[in-house]
């Protein structure tokens, strides 16, 4: 599977992506708001799961590599996972290499993934979660037309304490208005 944008290719992970993906996962900035960095075994397991996701029918999880045209090196990852089939709810997520921050790649990739969720997967609702202090991620959600649903108090272990998490969502009807250039 491959999803294209004007500047990006979102594609299935390959075994050959390990070294560059490990580099992304090793940056302290990548896990600034997470509890721990994955080790090599966990990274290999993630890549194996990402590859096996593509063999599922129907597919309930997409873990895709983000590459910047024309180079095919992994510069980030995006995910889309079925959360609640009965209400057609999916969860979206992203991580971009710190060297690529501030260039709009997270918004561009997530925008394409949202379009895929609503157009191809029949999603009714797409949600995203973020550490409450991760202002960059919160801005991405806002730029995508997502609305804050709420604050989940002390749901994330972080730096030896509990921290809050924010949940945002966008509904299919809101996405259609947003796509048409309207205001929500």
How does this structure look, described?
- This protein has helices at 18-26, 40-53, 105-119, 135-143, 172-179; strands spanning 2-4, 8-12, 61-68, 74-84, 89-96, 125-131, 147-158, 161-171.
- Strands 1-2-3-4-5-6-8-7 form an eight-stranded mixed β-sheet, sandwiched between helices.
- The longest helix has 15 residues, at 105-119.
- Helix 1 packs across helix 2 (40-53).
- 30% of the residues lie in helices and 35% in strands.
- A hairpin with a 5-residue loop joins strand 3 and strand 4.
- It is α+β, with helices and mostly antiparallel strands and 184 residues long.
- It contains five helices and eight strands, in the order ββααβββαβαββα.
- It has one domain (2-179): Aminopeptidase (3-Layer(aba) Sandwich), CATH 3.40.630.30.
Short description:
The chain is α+β, with helices and mostly antiparallel strands and 184 residues long.
């Amino acid at each position: 599977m491959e999803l294209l944008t004007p500047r990006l290719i979102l594609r299935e992970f390959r075994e050959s992506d390990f070294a560059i993906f490990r580099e992304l996962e090793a940056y302290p900035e990548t896990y600034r708001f997470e509890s721990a960095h994955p080790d090599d075994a966990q990274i290999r397991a993630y890549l194996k799961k990402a590859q096996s996701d593509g063999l599922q029918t129907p597919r309930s999880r997409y873990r895709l590599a983000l590459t910047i045209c024309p180079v095919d090196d992994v510069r980030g990852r995006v995910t889309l996972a079925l959360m609640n089939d009965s209400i057609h709810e999916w969860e979206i997520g992203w991580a971009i290499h710190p060297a690529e921050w501030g260039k709009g790649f997270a918004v561009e990739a997530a925008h394409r993934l949202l379009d895929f969720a609503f157009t191809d997967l029949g999603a009714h609702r797409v949600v995203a979660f973020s550490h409450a202090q991760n202002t960059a991620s919160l801005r991405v959600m806002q730029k995508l037309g997502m609305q804050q649903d709420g604050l989940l108090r002390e749901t994330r272990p972080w730096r030896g304490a509990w921290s809050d998490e924010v949940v945002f969502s966008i509904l299919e009807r809101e996405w259609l208005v947003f796509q048409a250039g309207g205001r929500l």
